[in-house]
Write a structure and sequence with these properties.
Layout lengths: L2 H9 L4 E5 L10 H12 L3 H8 L3 H8 L7 H11 L3 H4 L12 E8 L5 H14 L4 H22 L7 E9 L2 E8 L22 H15 L2 E7 L3 E9 L9
Antiparallel strand pairs: 1-2, 2-3, 3-4, 4-6, 5-6
Helix pairs in contact: 3-4, 3-5, 7-8, 8-9
């Protein structure tokens, strides 16, 4: 069975996964799509990008939805802010940002029972890139801790809501982005525990231990929040074995 059939059969219509691949000269993607994906991967909010470019956030939003097209001058400013060439946004070239980068995304309900499906998803895409067993175990640990925090503390379980997990591969790096619309929750602000005394219970102890292990197994962790887009946690792992090819 195709590994992705498992997810589509299990989830039905609501949760989803998808592969986002930059144009390779055959697949054409519009400026809006590229702009939105680049902005999200850079962790830049609509408001911050608009401020850098000198336009309104609503204008950037309209460009991303292909409701309007920027002038070449504005497109140049957008490209500069996103650290790519204008040609990349116009699909004339692929740019060093992502020569053959694969981005795979899954959306899940804020329920702990879905974490096993998330682990299967992340494991499948990492193994398809020949990520070593040791590196994969580290990535799975960090993803499980980060996702649990989203469910328990950003959404506080509550009514059904969704969060997204995006996995991307570039050169010798695996990047995992977790995005949710829950309450503002920055796990990096939680003080790390005193490892001489890890006894005790409660929210702060659980979260601080989780953040400790996330930082220990991943090479870089960043957090960004904006009122419009919510929480965005980025975790990066340098991998010892990966061909970095497509899925």
């Amino acid at each position: 069975m195709n590994p992705w059939t498992l997810f589509s059969n299990f989830f039905g219509e609501e949760p989803y996964f998808k592969t986002l691949k930059p144009s390779n000269g055959i697949e054409a993607m519009n400026i809006g799509f590229r702009l939105k994906e680049l902005r999200r991967l850079r962790g830049i909010s609509l408001r911050n990008l608009a401020k850098k470019v000198g336009v309104s956030a609503s204008f950037i939003s309209q460009v991303e939805q292909n409701k309007c097209q920027p002038s070449l001058d504005t497109l140049g400013k957008i490209s500069e802010a996103l650290e790519v060439t204008t040609g990349y946004l116009l699909e004339a070239e692929q740019d060093e940002f992502s020569p053959s980068k694969e981005v795979v995304e899954i959306r899940l309900p804020n329920r702990l029972q879905y974490l096993s499906i998330l682990a299967e998803f992340v494991g499948t895409v990492c193994r398809s890139h020949e990520v070593s067993h040791e590196d994969l175990e580290d990535i799975l640990l960090a993803v499980d801790e980060a996702s649990s925090n989203i469910i328990r503390y950003a959404y506080q379980v509550g009514p059904i809501n969704y969060f997204r997990v995006r996995v991307s591969f570039e050169r010798e790096l695996v990047q995992v982005d977790l995005l949710d619309q829950g309450a503002k929750f920055n796990p990096l602000e939680i003080p790390l525990p005193d490892m001489k005394d890890i006894t005790g219970d409660g929210k702060e102890k659980d979260v601080s231990l989780g953040v400790y292990f996330m930082k220990k197994v991943m090479d870089d962790i960043r957090y960004h929040y904006s009122p419009n887009e919510g929480n965005h946690l980025t975790m990066v792992k340098k991998i010892s074995q990966s061909k970095g090819n497509g899925l």
